[in-house]
Amino acid sequence: MEKILCPQCKGVSIKNGFQNNKQRYKCKFCNHRFQLEYTYNAYEPTTNTLIKNLLVEGCGVRSISRIIGISTTTVLSRMLKISKGIKIPYFNKLGCKFEVDELWSFIGNKDNFTWITYAIERETKHIIDFYVGRKTKETIRPLINKILLLQPTKIYTDRLNIYPSIIPKEIHKRFQYSTNKIERMNLTLRTHIKRLSRKTICFSKNKIYLEAHLRIYFWG
């Protein structure tokens, strides 16, 4: 008799009753319960990976819902679940150069602007962190403080008047073309993330969905 292996840990599984007239199994090692075939596509083991890949490739929530055959509510809940399992990669290289910039988006409706402020390491384009919200000294300062812990040699920004008051003058640089790399990344973000496109009917209904999508795109 062929052994049934757990899709999560590959451990040997045993029969564990029925659901909708379909045999269920339970892993002896991790206690994960599963079926070999599912009626609803959301329960397929590959669904989360497919959702993540489609989000990165520029598909909106409704597009993913149509492609996979699951509800938009399920797509949103899975997106939150996937993002919560993502940890920000630890960047510990000292003495690097960084670029900081902002790009706008909408939340709730097209009259409600919000800003995404984020930082990249200039050479590797590694995303250090990001913040979604208003452009104020209080909201941007934690991001800048995180960069300052890395003892940067230079921090390049645009001419937003907030930066000179929170970045030491000797390492702060802002001149024409100083943020070329991050500006190019802004274009990539607007191309790959449908809710960030300039001319679109797609936008985030809630801040948590925008943050979740960015976490998946940056570090997923």
Description:
By secondary structure, the chain is of the alpha+beta class. Among the domains are: 1-37, no CATH class; 97-207, 2-Layer Sandwich (Nucleotidyltransferase, domain 5). 31% of the residues lie in helices and 25% in strands. It is built from six helices and nine strands, in the order E-E-E-E-H-H-H-E-E-E-H-E-E-H-H. A five-stranded mixed β-sheet has the order 7-6-5-8-9, sandwiched between helices. Strands 1-2-3-4 form a four-stranded antiparallel β-sheet, with no helix packed on it. Strand 1 (4-5) and strand 2 form a beta hairpin. The longest helix is centred in the middle third of the chain and has 13 residues, at 72-84. The chain starts with a strand and ends with a helix. The relative contact order is 0.14. This is IS1 family transposase. Keywords: DNA recombination, Transposition. InterPro entries: Transposase_27, Transposase_27_IS1. Absolutely required for transposition of IS1.
